From TrEMBL:
Organism field: Serendipita indica (strain DSM 11827)
Name of this protein: Related to importin beta-2 subunit (Transportin)
Gene3D superfamilies found in the cross-reference section: Leucine-rich Repeat Variant
Acidic residues composition bias: residue spans: 316-326, 366-381
InterPro entries reported for this sequence: ARM-like (IPR011989), ARM-type_fold (IPR016024), HEAT (IPR000357), HEAT_type_2 (IPR021133), Importin_beta (IPR040122)
Length: 556
C-alpha cells in the first residue's frame, strides 16, 4: 500500500458524517450532511480518506464503507488534484476493495474502478487494467463477473480509451481474443458480458477487432440460439452494430441473419425483440442496403405491425387505457417538465430514444434524416419516455414506407385492414398507428383508400377508449396535407369540416391525453389549411377559449 496515511482527526470527522448520513428520517440533518460533504471536497486529499474507509476500515460496517465508495465514485475527478502519494493510495485501495470478501464493498469498488479508469484513462493506470485482465482468467466466477462488470461498462462509456498502446502492447490485442473465447463460457452471465464487450468496439472499427471480425461473427452465430435471453439480446445488438458499420461482412450471410432477426423480433422476451427490431430500423435507414432488404419486405412488414400492438403490461401500466375522465385532475409537477429526446445512433450511442409510437410529422433535412424518424416517434401518444418495441417497430415501418412505398404497402394492406376493423380495440389502435406511420412514404399509394379511411378515422374520434381517440388525432394530423385544402364543396363537406369539428371536440375532451393530441393535430391542420380556415375562425376561437378555461397547467 502507498505511503499516504490519513490524519486521525480528519478521518474521524469524515467518518462521523458518513454515519450521520444513515439517518434518513430527519431532513434537516440530511441537508446539513450534504453541505458538510460538499465542504469536504475542498479538503486536501479528501478522496484518499474515502478510499481508506472503503478498503482499509474492515471493522467499520459495510454500509458506511460502501457509502464512502459511492461518494468516492462521485468525486473521482478530485484524483487529478490530489497529491501523488494520495493518488497512488486511492488507486491501490480501489484495487484492494475490488477483491474484498463483502459483496457490498466489491460492488462499490467496481463503480469506483469504472469512474477512475475513465478519469485517468487505461494508459495512465495500467495496473488496474492488468488486474481486470487477470481476473478474466480467474477460476472464481465471482471474480470473473466483477471484472466484466467493470470492463463492460468501461467499454460502453469510453471504448476509444482502450484503443491505445500501453508499455509497448495494445490491451485490445489480448482482450478481443479473450472475449471471443469467453463467448463460449458455461456461465450465461460470462457469455453475455463477453459479447457485450465485443459489441462496443464494432462501430469504432479498431484494428484489434477488425483482424478478428470473422471470428466475432462466428461467435455471434454460435450463441444466437442461446437459452439465456440476455445473451440473445446481446447477439442481436452485435448484429445490428455490424449491419450499421460492416454490412459487407453480413450481406453474404443475410439470409440466415434475416431469418434469425425475424424470429427474434417475435421473441417473448421484450429485451430480445426490441434489439432485433432495431435491426430492421437500421437496415431500412441505409439506402445502400435497399436491394438486400427488398426480398424480406413481405415478411418483415406484418411482423413489425404485430410488434406495434400494446402489450398487456403496457396497458396495465397506462392510466389512459381505461381512465377516460381526468380533465379535472390537477397536473403533477413531473407533468410540467419539458421532454427532451436524443436519438441513439443505431449502434454505439443510441442513448434513450423516447416516445416513439405515435409522433409528429417527420422532418425533411437530408443530413438529419435518421433523427427525423426518431423524433417522429419521440412525441409518442403513449407519453412514455422509454424506447420500446412498439415505438421501434412504428419508426421502422415509417422509414420502410419512405424507402419502399408501394412495395411495402401491398403486402401490408390485408394485415392493416384486419387490424383497423378488428373488434379488439388494442388491435384497432395498432392499425390506426400503422396508418399514420405509413403517411409520409405511402401517401400517393394510400390516396385511393383515403375517401374510405378518413371517415373511418373521424368515427374513431368518438371511440370510448382514450388511446383510440388520441392516436386517431395523431394519424389525422399525418394526413392533413391531403384533406386540409379542399378543391370542391364535396371535399369540404366530406372531409374538411368533419375533421375540423372532430379535432375541436378532442381539444375539449375530458381526457388530458386526448386534449394534448387534439391540440397537436389541430395545429398541423390549421397550418395546412391556411386561408381555408378563415370562414370558421369564430367557432374555432370559441372552442379555444373554452379550452383555456378547462385545461390544467400543462397544455395551456
Amino acid at each position: 500500500m502507498a505511503t499516504w496515511s490519513p490524519d486521525p482527526a480528519g478521518l474521524a470527522q469524515i467518518l462521523q458524517t458518513l454515519r450521520d448520513s444513515t439517518n434518513i428520517h430527519d431532513k434537516h440533518i440530511q441537508s446539513q450532511i450534504t453541505m458538510r460533504l460538499n465542504d469536504y471536497q475542498r479538503v486536501p486529499n479528501y478522496i484518499a480518506y474515502l478510499a481508506h474507509i472503503l478498503a482499509a476500515m474492515t471493522a467499520e460496517g459495510e454500509q458506511i464503507r460502501s457509502i464512502a465508495g459511492y461518494i468516492l465514485k462521485n468525486n473521482a475527478r478530485l484524483i487529478t488534484s490530489a497529491s501523488p502519494d494520495a493518488a497512488v493510495y486511492v488507486k491501490a485501495s480501489t484495487i484492494s476493495a475490488f477483491t474484498d470478501a463483502s459483496v457490498m464493498i466489491r460492488n462499490a469498488a467496481q463503480q469506483v474502478l469504472i469512474t477512475l479508469l475513465g478519469v485517468l484513462e487505461p494508459r495512465n493506470w495500467p495496473e488496474a487494467l492488468s488486474v481486470l485482465i487477470q481476473a478474466l482468467d480467474s477460476p472464481d466466477q465471482v471474480t470473473q463477473e466483477g471484472a466484466f462488470v467493470v470492463l463492460s461498462r468501461a467499454c460502453e462509456d469510453y471504448p476509444r480509451k482502450f484503443d491505445v498502446e500501453i508499455q509497448g502492447s495494445r490491451p485490445l490485442d489480448f482482450l478481443v481474443p479473450k472475449w471471443i473465447e469467453l463467448c463460449q463460457h458455461p456461465s450465461p452471465k460470462i457469455r453475455g458480458y463477453a459479447i457485450s464487450c465485443l459489441t462496443q468496439f464494432v462501430p469504432i472499427e479498431t484494428e484489434s477487432l477488425n483482424v478478428h471480425i470473422d471470428n466475432i461473427i462466428s461467435s455471434f452465430f454460435r450463441t444466437a440460439a442461446d437459452t439465456d435471453p440476455i445473451v440473445r439480446r446481446n447477439v442481436c445488438t452485435g448484429l445490428v452494430l455490424l449491419l450499421a458499420s460492416r454490412p459487407d461482412k453480413l450481406i453474404p450471410e443475410m439470409h440466415n441473419v434475416a431469418e434469425y432477426m425475424l424470429y427474434s423480433t417475435q421473441d417473448q422476451n421484450t429485451l430480445v425483440s426490441l434489439e432485433a427490431c432495431e435491426f430492421w430500423l437500421t437496415f431500412a435507414e441505409d439506402p445502400e442496403l435497399q436491394n438486400a432488404l427488398t426480398p424480406y419486405i413481405p415478411r418483415v412488414a406484418p411482423v413489425l405491425l404485430d410488434s406495434m400492438v400494446y402489450s398487456e403490461e403496457e396497458i396495465l401500466m397506462n392510466p389512459d387505457a381505461e381512465e377516460d375522465d381526468n380533465a379535472n385532475v390537477p397536473d403533477k409537477g413531473e407533468d410540467m417538465k419539458p421532454r427532451h429526446y436524443s436519438g441513439r445512433t443505431h449502434g454505439l450511442e443510441r442513448e434513450e430514444k423516447s416516445d416513439a409510437a405515435n409522433g409528429q410529422p417527420a422532418g425533411s433535412g437530408a443530413d438529419d434524416e435518421d433523427d427525423d424518424y426518431d423524433e417522429d416517434y419521440d412525441d409518442d401518444e403513449d407519453m412514455s419516455t422509454e424506447w420500446n418495441l412498439r415505438k421501434c417497430a412504428a419508426a421502422a415501418l415509417d422509414v420502410l414506407a419512405v424507402r419502399f412505398g408501394n412495395t411495402l404497402l401491398q403486402p401490408l394492406l390485408p394485415h392493416l385492414k384486419e387490424k383497423l376493423w378488428s373488434p379488439d380495440w388494442v388491435q384497432r389502435e395498432c392499425g390506426i398507428l400503422a396508418l399514420g406511420a405509413l403517411a409520409e412514404g405511402c401517401i400517393d399509394y394510400m390516396e385511393p383508400h383515403l375517401p374510405t379511411l378518413i371517415p373511418f378515422l373521424v368515427n374513431m374520434l368518438a371511440d370510448s377508449k382514450p388511446l383510440i381517440r388520441s392516436i386517431t388525432c395523431w394519424t389525422l394530423g399525418r394526413y392533413a396535407g391531403w384533406y386540409a385544402q379542399p378543391q370542391t364543396q364535396e371535399q369540404r363537406d366530406r372531409f374538411f369540416i368533419p375533421i375540423m369539428e372532430g379535432l375541436l371536440r378532442m381539444i375539449l375532451d375530458n381526457n388530458k391525453r386526448v386534449q394534448e393530441a387534439g391540440c397537436s393535430a389541430f395545429a398541423t391542420f390549421e397550418e395546412e389549411a391556411a386561408h381555408n380556415l378563415i370562414p370558421y375562425l369564430e367557432p374555432v376561437l370559441q372552442n379555444l377559449v373554452l379550452a383555456f378555461d378547462k385545461y390544467q397547467q400543462k397544455i395551456s
